[in-house]
Write a structure and sequence with these properties.
about 400 residues, alpha/beta, 11 helices, 11 strands
Length: about 400
């Protein structure tokens, strides 16, 4: 009898304990659900508040204020301050001058949109990034190239800081200089300038392809052909290869390890073309750039090794592993051939345009190079004479 009562007592306690456990679990789950819902609501309001504050009161002044804050409970926090004109200027800023430091600029550019479908009308553009000491002696040829294609390109000029000359207001190069710093050949300042150009170009959300050119470069085809070639490509054009010679692997510094090993080390052409995805990766890099800056010094040249190695490390699938800027290195030495007016004729340009074969979107193509260098200023006159008919300029 005693054992039966004891058994019943134990069963009652177990049932009561199970009830308490079940009740505790239900209460905990309810509290967790309430906390999650509250957190989502608070987070949403916080993000909207921060977005409004960043847009309307940012001290980096890369863009004009897009929205103004209205504390009235009857209005949203985002109210247009100047209709569609202000929105367009924020999406595609017309004024390139700003007071951002390089760190601020790269940080802002790295936060640019990485989406495919933009929530606004977007005609993709090519950003032409000119890395030059000063004036552009071949500017009239480029003016001819760009004519009639407004809205499909953007221009950015990185010059020596002391260069302040402006072309006429009618020029496509008018007020296209970005805040620039001194560049020394073979030094890290060369890469600084390239990243500075990319970062400024990324601030325009409409820029989709990014081409680095110099004052000695010329286009080899008309704008329409080049635009369609780049916009329809499923990869970027950045040359990268493993060079076993002293001027390749021989430049590797063991102090770059273990982050960068000899098997990672690559070489390639300075003159690249990148799509938006790759451009964002380049300006966002804070891992490999400091290693190169500290340990790649002459006879190691960052402009020949940094980008090829970076792309090989983080996104080799984004590049077709070739350049679209033709350069003649057949004479050897540290610098390529410079062409003068006596070299310029239809046969010469035709050879550069069509004598090569390459892979484009998985198929063979005879159009491999879209630009060429190095052309002396005295080539302008014969180029202007030949280009309209040969290249199909307007």
């Amino acid at each position: 009898m005693l054992s039966k009562e004891l058994s019943l007592s134990i069963q009652r306690k177990v049932r009561n304990g199970q009830f308490r456990v079940a009740a505790t679990i239900i209460i905990c789950l309810s509290l967790t659900f309430l906390v999650l819902i509250s957190g989502m609501i608070i987070n949403d309001h916080f993000k909207r508040f921060v977005f409004c504050e960043n847009i309307s009161s940012s001290s980096l002044n890369a863009f004009p204020s897009l929205f103004t804050y209205n504390p009235s409970p009857h209005h949203s926090c985002m109210q247009y301050s100047n209709s569609s004109n202000t929105l367009n200027n924020w999406i595609s800023p017309k004024d390139l001058w700003h007071s951002m430091s390089d760190v601020e600029l790269l940080g802002r550019a790295s936060m640019g949109p990485r989406i495919i479908d933009f929530p606004f009308n977007r005609t993709p553009k090519i950003a032409f990034m000119f890395l030059t000491k000063g004036r552009l002696p071949l500017a009239p040829l480029w003016e001819m190239f760009f004519k009639g294609h407004d809205g499909l390109f953007s221009i950015y000029l990185h010059t020596s800081p002391e260069f302040v000359d402006e072309p006429p207001e009618s020029s496509v190069f008018y007020k296209r200089r970005i805040p620039s710093k001194l560049v020394q050949w073979g030094k890290s300042t060369m890469i600084d300038a390239e990243r500075r150009l990319l970062a400024n170009a990324l601030l325009d959300f409409k820029n989709e392809r990014f081409v680095l050119v110099s004052e000695t470069c010329i286009p080899l085809f008309n704008f329409s052909i080049i635009y369609n070639y780049l916009m329809n490509s499923n990869q970027s054009f950045l040359n990268t290869f493993d060079d076993p010679r002293p001027i390749g692997r021989g430049r590797y510094n063991k102090r770059m390890g273990p982050t960068i090993t000899l098997s990672d080390w690559r070489k390639g052409s300075q003159w690249f073309e990148a799509n938006r995805e790759l451009a964002l990766e380049i300006v966002s890099d804070v891992t490999y750039y400091p290693i190169f800056r500290n340990h790649c010094m002459p006879p190691c040249y960052m402009d020949e090794h940094y980008l090829p190695t970076l792309v090989t490390k983080i996104c080799p699938n984004l590049t077709s592993n070739r350049t679209i800027t033709w350069t003649d290195w057949s004479r050897g030495g540290s610098h390529p051939t410079t062409f003068t007016r006596n070299n310029i004729n239809k046969e010469f340009l035709d050879r550069v345009r069509t004598r090569f074969n390459c892979t484009y979107n998985g198929e063979m193509s005879s159009i491999c190079f879209l630009f060429a260098r190095k052309f002396h200023p005295n080539t302008l006159e014969p180029l202007l004479r030949i280009a309209p008919k040969l290249l199909g300029f307007i």
